[in-house]
Specification:
This protein is of the alpha+beta class. Helix content is 15%, strand content 33%. The chain has 3 helices and 29 strands. A hairpin with a 5-residue loop joins strand 21 and strand 22.
């Protein structure tokens, strides 16, 4: 299922859905003098350090709040889409060709944790075996003589035969690892990665092993899972297409599809740490909010029409959303109102990270830049950070 049908900007299709040319995972990213001005799709905080990722496997880090940047050694040259740090030292980046890289020193150095092409070959074999077993089980039920709903069973058999045909076709064709779109960890051991065409991966050991959990979601249309996030109550969420948000209260073992009422694509989710409200954002400035743990969603008036690709939430409840055309919009009252922050540079922004004084560093087209949005006074004389 392609996002193009929802008028997604051509640039983002090229960045996040079109896979690279299956370069060998061992092809290291080239060191480039102007890497900090290249296309950088995400940025994260690692203790006192900032870490940004993007095209050609570029990863850069800053130890002075974005004033200067150093390019890291990275063992892959495919595009990296997202980066996440669970502690000042331990973090992961994901991207095209299904690759995952990991750092244990705060983003200074990286190692290849998952070779997506090799891993996908194993996933394809497992899916074919699972599809074959499922079809055999349904046929046994049909022949058992038990009292069954034959019409429902016939439909299930038809779907199972289709799934087996698809699985066998994947085995016969060159391996195609879907692009990975987002990564989130609960702690240093438990983590999830979401990706295109219904991809969901899970690890219980810090990424030493990544298991394919795509089949646990119940996504026959293979919608793109553009974002994954865990909430304070322990629930997991996937941002997807067709206005669908998948929710799990079983650590990802089972999922329910929630219709938000929106018909377009969501690109990510963020939780307000102060109120525990959830926000889903996406095409054409769309922002939806849930105040009941993801069960119901309502549309907010973000005040912008540019597609939103990234977000940041800080402890006091300020939420920043960034997107196409250099768009930045902020809410400080849990989505009741938004303020657009005009940017002199109108290039697309895909990631945002907070630094001191209420300011931010943005990543996107043309690299990295600062956003000056200082803390404002609040009644009582305290600073609103």
């Amino acid at each position: 299922m392609s996002k193009a049908g929802w008028a997604l900007p051509c640039l983002l299709v090229a960045l996040l859905l079109v896979t690279s040319s299956n370069q060998a995972a061992g092809n290291a990213a080239m060191k480039m003098e102007r890497a900090a001005s290249s296309l950088l799709l995400d940025i994260a905080v690692a203790g006192s350090r900032l870490v940004a990722v993007g095209e050609r496997g570029h990863i850069l880090y800053s130890e002075d709040e974005g004033e200067t940047w150093i390019q890291s050694d990275v063992p892959t040259s495919v595009m990296l889409t997202r980066v996440f740090f669970i502690s000042p030292s331990l973090g992961w980046a994901v991207g095209h060709d299904g690759n995952v890289v990991v750092s244990s020193d705060g983003g200074i150095s990286w190692s290849l944790q998952r070779d997506g092409v090799a891993a996908q070959a194993g996933i394809n074999r497992d899916r074919a075996l699972r599809a074959e077993k499922n079809l055999a089980g349904l046929r046994d039920r049909l022949d058992s003589g038990e009292e069954i709903d034959r019409q429902a069973l016939a439909l299930a058999l038809e779907e199972a035969e289709y799934q087996l045909d698809e699985a066998e076709l994947n085995l016969a064709e060159p391996v195609f690892p879907p692009p990975l779109m987002d990564v989130w960890f609960l702690d240093e051991h438990w983590g999830w990665i979401s990706g295109a065409y219904g991809t969901l991966l899970h690890t219980a050991n810090g990424g030493r092993d990544w298991q394919d959990w795509s089949h646990k979601v119940g996504d026959p249309d293979q919608l793109h899972f553009n974002g994954v996030v865990g909430a304070a109550d322990g629930s997991l969420y996937l941002a997807s297409e067709w206005g669908t948000i998948f929710r799990s209260s079983t650590d990802g073992k089972s999922w329910e599809a929630i219709d938000s009422g929106y018909e377009g694509s969501f690109f990510g989710l963020v939780e307000n740490p102060r109120t525990e409200s959830l926000f889903a954002y996406g095409l054409r400035g769309t922002v939806y909010r849930s105040t009941d743990k993801g069960l119901h969603w309502s549309e907010l008036h973000s005040g912008v029409t540019a597609s939103l690709f990234g977000a940041s939430a800080v402890d006091d409840g300020r939420l920043m959303f960034v997107g196409a055309g250099g768009m930045v919009t902020v809410t400080e009252d849990d989505g009741e109102s938004f303020t657009q922050l005009p940017q002199a540079i109108r290039r697309g922004v895909y990631g945002i990270a907070p630094i001191t004084g209420g300011n931010y560093v943005l990543s996107g087209e043309g690299g990295l830049r600062m956003l000056n949005y200082p803390a404002r006074p609040i009644p009582g004389g305290e600073a609103h950070q």
